[in-house]
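Pasting as-is:
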Amino acid sequence: MRDTDHLHEIGRVLRGQTTGRDGVVSESWRRCVETYGLDPSQPSPAHIVTESELRAHREQSERLIAIARSGLDALFRQVAGQNYVLLLADAKGVTVDFFGDRRFEDDLRTAGLYMGSDWSEDRAGTCGVGSCIVTGEAVTIHQSDHFDLHHTPLSCTAAPIFDTSGNLSAVLDLSLLRSPQPKASQNLAMNLVCASARRVEMANLMAMTRRDWVLRFSASPEFLEVDPEAAIALDGAGRIIGMTHAAQLLLGVRNGGLIGQRLDRIMELSADDLPELMRGRPSEERVIRLHDGRALFGHAIAPQSPRVPRGTGVALPGGLPSLAGPDPAMQTLLIRVAKLARTRIPLLLSGETGTGKQRLARAIHMCEPDARPFFLLDCAGADPAAIDALRPRADQAGTLFLQGVDDLSAAGQAAVLRLLTDAKLRVIASTRGDLAAMTRSGEFRSDLFFRIAGATLALPPLRLRQDFDWLLDKLLRQRNPDGLRLTPAARAELKARNWPGNLRELASVLDVAVNLAEGMAIDISDLPDPVLTGTGRGPAEDLEAILDACGWNMALAARRLGVNRSTVLRRVQRLGLTPPH
């Protein structure tokens, strides 16, 4: 189309004549002239904001950029060979992330397909990003659909990204410097950009609602667990506190009307029914009935990190919420940790090998907002010279983690004591054994013990944790990019093991199982045999602790103890034990 033809067509649209353009395009042209006062006869080069302005826009979008980055990188790899450019613009139209072929950087910058370009409609005229922001809908602005003559060579397909409250937060744009003539050539680009925007919203919802139930759903069961269509987040009372944009469309509730609604007002479902929609049942059996008669398929995800227990008034800072699920002992421990984390009190972490002592130490360190160094001293075999070499660092305001402090030799204990004299470092030590008993027997120096054991925090072994399913699912997600699931038989087998190596052993078993599994499920045959046999229990553990950890499932407790179910029943009756209400 010649420039004069383009100007004449805009004139006809302004006079109310039809020209065959999409309604979105015609309405945008009218806004450009009547609202923004733009002149179609005066081409305007792309506007790139200043570096300081771009920095401000990127800082405001930092969290979304981080969440979207991996998904957008995957999308760009799909289309890079077709010379597409991928832009992420904020709600004001400024490009805050960019994926493109750097060999054509000058051409892309000139066209505005670059970091910092401002694609707001009042500045750039009719364009993919700007028109998407105004309409809140996915659009393709193809070649002469653009208002400004400077942009008519481009083809831009954009989709909106909404936050968990239903407000527009960003726009994802897939553009070409030069494209085939038919607008229909961009149908695939439209499908790709809409699917990617939906996945970004899903990832954002999951990141924002780790402490809440999430219900993901689709109209068909095939991709329910790996790529669901929509999702809502729910508080403990079953009220909707977050959503993806597609949830509004699929449930037929527009304009943010879902937020604050009770789940049972929309579906024949309550918050108490959510566990029935978790993994473990085939997707096609997880049917959700809507009050309007329609049926969807649902996948419920339990809170990934615990809420602050009522009455404690203690929020779990930093990475502490990620250390435990619904386990009363761990929750009590983490509440105590939260109160001590930002003090300078030395902490002694006790627990069997593999219970997560080093991870807890790092989480405590990260509760401090300032960037401070974290020094790890492996005490097994540490000689006095190596310990003395740390003395220049003792004047820094960081954290020193003494791993396996019970392994220190007498000379090593003396060296650590010298290191800690007048040191600014906050000390966290770990021990597998009973350090107090070692101190009483003279195996460990009492002056060093009282310097490192301001408060003692005992981590329970995996066999006594009541959040085993939560831990299992979390560890599986971390090493399982393809969405493998555990069969009920495999899950039952893992829950019945004694785990002398604790979390470290469980992680190793899952590493093996993920690599041996064929298809989409891990079965018993994929699980390696236990490395160590026997109970591995300490003398202080009693039957009631094992039953609590097993949810008072007698058969499961019997398997974990290596005895018959009847033996467990007899012991329960003899001791007069009763399950908790």
